[in-house]
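Model: You mentioned two targets. I'll fold them one after the other.
Researcher: Yes, keep them separate.
Model: Target one:
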Amino acid sequence: MSSYSTGRRLQTPRTRSGMASHSTNHSQRPPKQRPKTVRKQWSISDFEIGKPLGRGKFGRVYLAREAETKFIVALKVIFKEQIEKYRLHHQLRREMEIQSSLRHPNILRLYGWFHDDERIFLILEYAHGGELYKELRKSGTFSEEQAATYIVSLAQALAYCHEKNVIHRDIKPENLLLDHEGRLKIGDFGWSVQSKSKRHTMCGTLDYLAPEMVENKAHDYAVDNWTLGVLCYEFLYGMPPFEAETQKDTFRRIMKVDLNFPSTTVISTEAKNLISRLLVKDSSKRLSLQKIMDHPWITNNANPKGACWS
């Protein structure tokens, strides 16, 4: 829920738990100019609100400037009425706690949050380049160099998350943002969970679900590795690999790993090799994140600085 807008694809049914009310005023101040005091009780009056950046089912995102330091942020406004309606208290609290604890160049910072009677406000890092989804829709596909740069950036960010026992579970173009140099940032942690044990909740977005999730089996960090294979395919071919007319057919294709490489698009053998080694039904046999980073297609194509724009 922290990215600039909601996605366009079908979401799997959401099971909710935890009805604890949320009234936290979290106080990490955006960097650049350090505050005189460690903690601050934020309010909307601390910000100058600019243009809208996006809108979704639960609220809107605005460009904003912190009045004292002039630091630019993205201010996500979530309506409490919607949180009540869909019983999202537990998920939102978990998302905020996880994202605010992460520090990685390819993960969007959540600096803090506050609330009033009707709204919850998330103070987010501003990603000047906007949503990766829009870039992909505009161009149709990415070059192998651009795709490799995004995939290795994601692998590095996910390796960091996994070290902290965080499984993301919903990596997709709609949840990815770009900075002013085209560096990728994971911008949404709505389905993430922090756990050392296997999970059983079916969650995420249809086209990106791993077979073990489709089959309602226990899953672990390897679901994120599967998703990188799906994303790599989509970056190069312009569509997810298991896309079908109906949800049932998509599920069937995922469970069978019905993977095809259309001859209409010329893609290198190395790229196909990486995708094929990630889209493996047995989760224990999927390529590890470190092996993704060391794969010849990555080392030969990715920009070491992670930037895709000059």
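Model: Target two:
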Amino acid sequence: MIFRLIQIELLKVKRSLALLMMLACPLMVSLLCFSVQLKTNKTGVIPWTMYWAGTTAIWGYFMLPLYLALMTGLLNGNEHKHATWRLMLTLPITPRQLFLAKFVLALLFLIGANLVLLLSCLLSILVFGVLSYPLDGAFDFRFFHFLWCASLSALPILIWQHWMSWRVQNIVAPLAFGVVATMGILQIGRSEKWIYYPWSYVMAALNGSSSAMQMQAILLASILALLSLGIFTFWVGRQESGLD
């Protein structure tokens, strides 16, 4: 039944604002980095390692956490707006199944946004090539490593934002929470306290100072994600008559 629910949820987001955001948010990051590099580069040689690092830093520090807050709010907000929660729960499904189906949908949107970032960044590099910039080392980037680390380390944020947007009918509250939490990355993410702040796990996993730090961030994110998903799913399962 849960696989059927996921199929239904995928059909519901066709031509949706959430799908548009999945494309627009990473594209804006790539366009920003492309424009800055094009305007400031005076040597004609682009340090591609720094270019990739700058793109992933902007994505991990700012845009990805904000995107997750907006995306989960939009996915669950449609159900709140049109009061379709109770209609869905009149079907032979449980609240837990619906909650998990929505989570899987949000996870697909997370992976999709990371893929769009990679593809748009590759496209910007090809444009640099057309503009006669040398591309030596431009593709020496661990694409699958980025996709795996960025998606896995963001799971705690995704789950918490999903639960909050599930609980709160107004999209403003989850989005405001996401904005405030993102601002904390600037201070806490650069300190030794980063391990206590899940919003800093993405940057630690992507641009950590050592491989040990990167693996620690991924491990912490995985454990916290499993615990959070289990607790929230159990809590949702207690609502036998729908959302309260």
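Researcher: Noted. Anything on target two?
Model: DSSP finds eleven helices and no strands in the chain.
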